[in-house]
Request: fold
Amino acid sequence: MKGSLAYYAWCIFLLAVIFVGLKFYIIQLDQGLINTNMRDQVSWGLYIANFTYLVGIAAAAVLLVIPAYIYHFDPIKEIVVFGELFSASSIIMALMFVFVDIGRPDRFWHLIPFIGKLAFPDSLLAWDVLVLNGYLFLNIFVPVYILVRSYYQKEPNKRTVVPIILLSIPWAVGIHTVTAFLYNGLAARPFWNASILAPRFLASAFCSGPAIIIIIFQVIRKVSKVKIENEALFKIAELIAYAMFLNLFLLGAEIFKEYYSDTVHLAPLTYLYKGLEGHTTLVPWIWTSLSMNLVAFLIFLIPTNR
Amino acid sequence: MGQRMWIMSGNLYTRRTFMKILSAGFAAGLGGINASCKKVINEEFFQKYFSEMTDEEKKRVVQRLEEKYLKKYGKSTRISFGEAKPNTLWGYGLDLSRCIGCRRCVYACVRENNNSRYKPQLHWIRVIRLKKGNLINLENAEHYYNPDKVPEEGFIYMPVQCQQCENPPCVKVCPVHATWKEPDGLVVVDYDWCIGCRYCMAACPYKGRVFNWAEPNIPKEELNTAMHYFGNRPRMKNVVDKCTFCIQRVRSGKYPACVEACPTGTRKFGNLLDKNSEIRYLIENKRVFRLKEDLNTEPKFYYFFSL
Reply:
């Protein structure tokens, strides 16, 4: 199979973007993380935020796997491999974000179990290292296995593949729960130190992940001969509606708790939605996000709109 | 079949030349580094976890570090591994009635501990200004107060540094065990093991830890050459550091630099396990409190008002 001109142009564009990123990363390696403009006051920034986001959308592949393998919903069953590959690539991106965020990547080997000194089970970051790499393995193994079997014109052996795929379902929930617990366990950060964090993370991940998957499927339909039935996309949209409802409900719960109790812990929410003492940089972002959530929810709620 | 072979060999061909070019460039780059430099880089890269090093290896590490500092700062240094004294648990007392917010402690600490002076400016001690009548609500604290004269009317000043918690959340979250609590209660960081993930900074409720965002800028003339491996030896970029109660001083019978620098006698220090120490007297006779006690971190930093 040879790609079209557009395909190679897209690949070259992506390589150019990678090259630019690499150039800036080398500057960061040389001068230190001071170039990120993070400081002691905000020592975790876009790197970790994007890492969390990518772990979330990687977990969302489970929303394809469950209909395909547990409910045997055929329109999705044909395209679940795409979901798994999507997961694998977002996990790779998430792991790379961690890699560029840590100050001493030359000491990366300290994180490898038995070779370094991974602080398992005390540190949630240690858990994250293990579950993310495990999930990456699961999501690479299945598509590669299926591809290799089909190259030799053989059907994939169900007894090999299905247990692994079934394992990836709780594992997917696990990766985003562990990532949520990373923040959740910090007593020093009251905005994060709330039980609602893990459910909220999962709910919002199950909205954003399948949304990207839908976009990717539309692109695949346009540029290739792979057939994806409308029913598959409708089902995914329906699942997004359920997840979005949960997401908005949990957001409402958070907002009620802070605004009604009106303690000093209201400050982070005020900072996000109104700004604190003149610092309003994040305010337009959170309101845009909130309105997009609401609009998406209403669109996907009504079946004819999907 | 033949066509596939062509494509395959075509792919292999381009991949092979790519690898050739890549490895040639890599070898050329490596060849540019001379032999001794490579040895140091190798030793630094493979340095083992502190408690797993033999005494020989630790000596070699200190030797390498002293050579490095000699080259960088032009001064010969003495780096000790001074261990915790037995039956010792260091505690700190702070008399909030006396602090005038002059920040002499902050700068004495910077000088004693070889902190970066600028880009980034790292202070292990933060003095915060609180309005009288509004004490525990730290939301209204001001760290960047800058009047012409201190103390200002209607305010009190509260210095905060690493509280050397007995139940430290930072130690719990470090993914590589780069930070731990020593037997004498001091929470230390092995700067050569830290991977710079800053999770400990997120976990600390007191903002006790700072990060070397760039290679520290220390003026050569001001380098303090009496160093401890876990204390004031110059750090490198992208690792975390924090107050160690001047581990290089207290383990050899001296007071921390901040205690000696304070002009009003605000700071008290001693061994919590010694019945006759000043800090024990304070805890038993003054109304001491600690910050954020509801977080169960059990800090060793006792605040009180003597007046």
Notes: Chain A has two domains: 1-31, 32-305. Chain A has a mean pLDDT of 88.
